[in-house]
């Protein structure tokens, strides 16, 4: 049983898909399902499709935002049937497995799947450390949601079975800790007029991407926040003068 | 687009699964679907689940028996979520890919999926050259039919993308040619009183397994049938004397 990986479904619209995802997970040893703002009721339709995996449905965590869903995760992965040029660094599903196994040693891993119609939007992708695309036929790439979860879950299962035991890599900060750092940075940056008040978003996005890519350790987050706090204190003192 | 591999669904009971299988195939470049004695109507439910892959449904071949479905295939694979001790030689899905790529060079490949409830029965497994099991969690191995097809299809797709071009291996006899040989052998064996009339099945099963395992070339089938015909001719002549 894999306790490190969560499957996060974002704004899913079909209850049958949620049930089928539960079954797809359970059969590959995954148990942790998170539903972000589901657009349907998880009732009898979902339970029928879940078959022997209703326990996964019953223990699913329902949250309002992606940030809430990934707060504890040290490694956040987006999924797509397309190679996208924007957003986090992209790799083909299978070639991402070695990294994912290492990350599972360091902390929790959240894997995001977007709504049936459009997949993950840019706001969601910005929160990801990595994007996996699932290779498909060029003329028809429309994987069903539960089919996509099945492919990812069976790759994870196969990778886990093959993985040699390695040295334990250093711990990594959770997405919640990194989000706290980013918010803190934005506050301080505004306070010291670091960013142009007319177009602050673009600069912040860059910083956000950087912090996500860097895979910060908890001690590093603490260090950076200590620095930001020091800047704030200094500013307050100079204002008081 | 892969023109060599057929997905063969045996006595499927849920039309939604047939539709979902069509989509699972299409997204991984597979087009050839064969339905053996389907136990449901392939109508609006199947079409809805097929989504953009209705062309696969529309071109599906519907046949009455497995023998009919695999007649043209040179390599017949059964699938299972369990490792079985009886029947054809077993390997884990991924470790079967190299062989399957070679077989696609030689001729057509048929991959069989059994009914939802019980999977392939022994009669079906006897017709297979190989059995692939899909590794799953030990405490819950109940893969949905379309999910199983999705996992197999994406492994095939990944293997095809990775496969280096190799030397063309010798052609292999089709399942229909091998079945003709086996029937011929049985007729001759009975005619010459080779087998015990009280328990002929067991001996025939052994011979059947042997011929399936041997991966006969077309010329070898022709040779063996020539031999059987010679035996028949000799017997007729001695009867006439």
Report on the architecture of this protein.
The structure is a homodimer of 241-residue chains. The first copy, chain A, has 241 residues and is an alpha/beta fold. Chain A folds into two domains: 158 residues, SPOUT methyltransferase, trefoil knot domain (Alpha/beta knot); 66 residues, Helicase, Ruva Protein, domain 3, CATH 1.10.8. The first copy, chain A, has ten helices and seven strands. In chain A, strands 3-2-1-6-4-7-5 form a seven-stranded parallel beta sheet. In chain A, helix 1 links the parallel strand 1 and strand 2. In chain A, helix 1 runs parallel beside helix 2 and helix 1 packs parallel to helix 7. The longest helix of chain A has 23 residues. Chain A is elongated, with a radius of gyration of 20 Å. The mean pLDDT of chain A is 88. At the A-B interface, helix 1 and helix 7 of A face helix 1 and helix 7 of B.
């Amino acid at each position: 049983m894999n306790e490190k990986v969560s499957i996060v479904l974002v704004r899913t619209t079909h209850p049958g898909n949620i049930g089928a995802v539960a079954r797809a997970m359970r059969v590959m040893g995954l148990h942790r399902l998170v539903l972000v703002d589901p657009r349907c009721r998880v009732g009898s339709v979902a339970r029928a499709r879940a078959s022997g995996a209703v326990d996964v449905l019953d223990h699913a965590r329902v949250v309002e935002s992606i940030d809430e869903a990934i707060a504890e995760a040290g490694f956040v992965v987006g999924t797509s049937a397309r190679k996208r040029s924007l957003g986090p660094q992209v790799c083909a599903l299978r070639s991402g497995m070695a990294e994912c196994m290492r990350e599972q040693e360091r902390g929790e891993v959240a894997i995001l799947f977007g709504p049936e119609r459009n997949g993950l939007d840019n706001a969601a992708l910005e929160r990801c450390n990595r994007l996996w695309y699932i290779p498909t036929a060029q003329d028809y790439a429309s994987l069903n949601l539960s089919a996509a979860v099945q492919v990812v879950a069976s790759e994870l299962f196969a990778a886990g079975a093959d993985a040699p035991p390695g040295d334990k890599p250093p711990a990594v900060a959770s997405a919640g800790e990194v989000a706290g750092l980013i918010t803190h940075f934005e506050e301080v940056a505004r306070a010291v007029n670091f960013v142009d008040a007319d177009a602050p978003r673009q600069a912040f996005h860059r910083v956000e991407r950087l912090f996500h890519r860097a895979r910060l350790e908890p001690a590093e987050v603490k260090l950076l926040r200590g620095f930001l706090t020091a800047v704030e204190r200094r500013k307050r003192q100079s204002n008081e003068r």
